[in-house]
Amino acid sequence: MDDLDVTLRGVTKTFGGRRAVDDVTLTIRRGEFFSLLGPSGCGKSTLMRMIAGFEAAESGTILLGGADMAGVPPHKRDVNMVFQSYALFPHLSVAENVAFGLRIAKVDDVDGRVRRSLEQVNLAGYEKRTPATLSGGEQQRVALARAIVTGPRVLLLDEPLSALDLKLRKGLQQELRRLQRDLAMTFVFVTHDQEEALAMSDRIAVMNRGRVEQIGSPEEIYERPATRFTAEFVGAGNFFEGVGDGRTVRTNDGLSIESAASGNVTLLVRPEKMRLNGGSGLPARVEEVLYQGASMSIILMAGDRRLLVEDANDGALARVRVGETTTVSWRPEDVLVLPR
Amino acid sequence: MKKALPLLLPPTLWLTVFLVLPTAALAVSAFSKEGLAALLEPVTWFLFWKSFRIAVVSTAFCLAVSYPVAYFIAGCSPRWRNLLLFLVVLPFWTNLLVRTYALKVCMEPLGWLNTESAVVFALVQNFLPFMILPLYASIEKLPKRLLEASQDLGASPAVTFWKVTVPLTMPGIAAGCILVFIPVLGIFALPEFIHERTHLIGSQINLYFMKNRNAGAGSALTLVLMLFTIVLTWTYSRFRKSEGLV
What we know:
The complex is a heterodimer of chains A (about 350) and B (about 250). Chain A is α+β, with helices and mostly antiparallel strands and about 350 residues long. Chain A has helices at about 45-50, 95-105, 110-120, 135-150, 165-185, 195-200, 220-225, 230-235; strands at about 5-15, 20-30, 35, 60-65, 65-70, 80, 155-160, 185-190, 205-210, 210-215, 240-245, 250, 255-260, 260-270, 275, 280-290, 295-300, 305-310, 325-330, 335-340. Chain B contains 12 helices and no strands. The longest helix of chain B is centred in the N-terminal third of the chain and has 34 residues, at about 40-75. Classes of the chains: A alpha+beta (about 350), B mainly alpha (about 250).
């Protein structure tokens, strides 16, 4: 139990008759970078606000470091939050924003702690500025410094990067990850961006309609999705619904795909696992070629079936022309089986 | 610039006729023998002090009563908010004298009439809307996220109130206090209705102009009152600028 920072057991919350969070059970280990990933309205933010204490659970238990948090108000919980809108105090300087929690905790050497914390987020020398004079990225760093400076057990981050532009976001992703390792602090990161979650997390909980669909490492989530929702939400995919007999799966449009699955199943082949070649395979017509810089996407029609193939832009696909006929193939071990 | 001139003419005329000229006339009349004599009277400064004291106390009570009311209204759903704000303004639909007489009728059986505290009560109830409305406007703008951020960082609701809510609603507090303090400082008639002996500087000015026909003394007192309120509003506008909020 000692190395568990957050434990949720059967946590449920209803808003206006709709279950925003539905019977969620999960544990987050000490020092883990844990992401709650899902589309907007899936309950991930509500779940985080329940951990912070801003929403009460209707049923279920929330434990922080083994202590039951029922009835404990937000200011008595050893968790800090980085808000999506930063929520910096406009009437206070950067230094006073960061010092806010320290002054309440009545610790000594406030100035030194503030300075070191600002250094950690690369904002040394910003002490006297006011939040209004900072860019979005800088405000986000101040919010981060303010939240980590008191050394909370858990840091909650509510889509902290979603308001920033792509380049800034990539940079901050790496910084966040480095900071989390340096501090060895438990981070709970809420995002709807699957790439962000895959790149940063130790483990991910994929959420859908208030429920947890799957919990696992980024590799497990992507390579072995447990449900069709996870498979579709995390990355793109080519899905084949059919009936298997243990050796092949027959789809309703007459394809036979080599797979050990039996019964009603959905097969998934990720776009980057598919290969175009002139040899044996599924015949298909090139419908569209999408140039994406580092990679290329090719949309194929195999009969009435739309297939997506993705490959690195290493020249092999440069010859593919819209309208031409080709074949598409994949290795049997790249076929993922999902229950139906 | 040439095109702007015709547009500037009406307001310039208006201000000249109704503000600059009367003020000049007031100043001329104030710097007279009677005016200077009135300023040397100890009773004048006693009345200034009394008016100042009553204005401070009334404003303080007004703020103390209005803040919870404004806070409550700002927290209601939009439909309730509009209804409650309407109720706040409703007393203005009745004439001040009528309202004060009504208050007098209510106070009489309680034996509360003819005290200074009754005067303060009457002033507070009369000026409440001037305090509630600016307070409501700034509390309503306060982002809820900031209150959550404060609590998240360990501040209890009380600490959050003093460290976040009050500083961030300071523009509303200052505006409300100015809007109550200045009219109360120069008020006349209303205090005497409640308590005849509560004679304030406004009543004194009224007395000089209307009864004693001593325009010089009345002008001198008015000028001092004006200077005081100008300094007050100037301080307030500087404070607003330095705050950088609004």
